[in-house]
Write a structure and sequence with these properties.
Layout: E1 4-5, E2 8-9, H1 11-33, E3 38-44, H2 48-64, E4 67-73, H3 79-91, E5 97-100, H4 110-115, H5 128-135, H6 145-156, E6 165-169, H7 176-185, E7 189-193, H8 200-205, E8 209-212, E9 230-233, H9 246-250, E10 255-256, H10 264-283
Parallel strand pairs: 3-4, 3-5, 6-7, 6-8, 8-9, 9-10
Antiparallel strand pairs: 1-2
Helix pairs in contact: 1-10, 2-10, 6-7, 6-10
Length: 287
């Protein structure tokens, strides 16, 4: 099934295919080992958006046949308590992937909590170990889910990245920076732009591929783009809009991801995929 419509790259067909393959892998693991693949999610506090995201992740787990173990900690949790909880999950052979929902309350050292996740179970790609292995294009790790989802969308649209100039707008540790590393590994020439970049529209104008991950609604304008550029919008903002002004950009871009319906469906599908792959590695199951 094609995942392009006019000049739109649609995420749902690719995400659905990933979920089908993941469900088959989970069933194969169960048949060969008797073990049920398990993702542990840890949530600290009462952030409404985080609760919504956790529910969505649990729904995807159910669709793939993955068991979800949820640990809910209150707002007063300390770094030490959170690290102890994650360490315990890391040592549990029945848990194959661990996800700490962020943000966490201000009193917690989020980085210390992330680093308590063993790389083998870091299915969200948040640890130093995962990031460094990804950057050096080495095996044994999982990349951040949204950047990996974008890479799979580009692959699904048969985009040859070699030699292309990719401009990533945003430098967050879970999106912009890993995105640059994944593109570089496919031989793209990568420029990372951010809040201190001078003459941002002119930088974007040079790009064959634009990844918008800036967290500002409709920030990237169509007249910033080179004719025929490929636009991957990783933003999601109030009003169901991305980081790109879609109407103006779609007139210039050869391919563009809509919001909603583009990158969004991929993130959770990749999380399920990577949890199943982590379980297969831990349990020694080959396909």
């Amino acid at each position: 099934m094609s995942n392009t419509l006019d000049n739109k790259i649609l995420g749902k067909p690719v995400a659905d295919s990933i979920m089908q393959t993941t469900a088959a892998r989970v069933a194969n693991i169960k048949a060969k080992t008797g073990k049920t693949v398990c993702l542990a999610t840890v949530l600290v506090g009462e952030d409404p958006a985080s609760h919504t995201y956790i529910r969505m992740k649990h729904n995807r787990c159910e669709q793939a046949g993955i068991a979800s173990r949820h640990i809910k900690l209150d707002d007063s949790t300390t770094t030490e308590q959170l690290v102890a909880t994650i360490t315990e999950l890391g040592a549990d052979p029945d848990v194959h992937g661990i996800l700490l929902q962020h943000p966490v309350p201000k009193q917690i050292d989020e980085r210390a909590a992330f680093e308590a996740i063993p790389v083998a179970k870091d299915v969200d790609g948040v640890t130093y170990g995962s990031f460094s292995r990804m950057w050096f294009d080495e095996p044994g790790c999982f990349p951040s889910c949204t950047p990996q989802g974008i890479m799979l969308l580009l692959e699904s649209a048969n985009i040859d990245l070699s030699g292309k100039h990719a401009v990533v707008i945003g430098r967050s540790p879970i999106l912009g920076k890993p995105m640059a590393g994944l593109l570089l590994a496919k031989n793209a020439t990568v420029t990372i732009c951010h809040s201190r970049t001078k003459d941002l529209p002119q930088m974007v104008k040079q790009a064959d591929i634009v990844v918008a991950a800036v967290g500002k609604p409709e920030f990237v304008q169509g007249d910033w783009l080179k004719e025929g550029a490929i636009v991957m919008d990783a933003g999601y903002n109030p009003g169901n809009v991305g980081d790109v002004h879609f109407d103006s950009a779609a007139k210039v871009a050869s391919l563009i991801t809509p919001v909603p319906g583009g990158v969004g469906p991929m993130t959770l599908a990749v999380l399920m995929q990577q949890t199943s792959l982590a379980a297969a590695q831990q349990l020694g199951v080959t396909e």
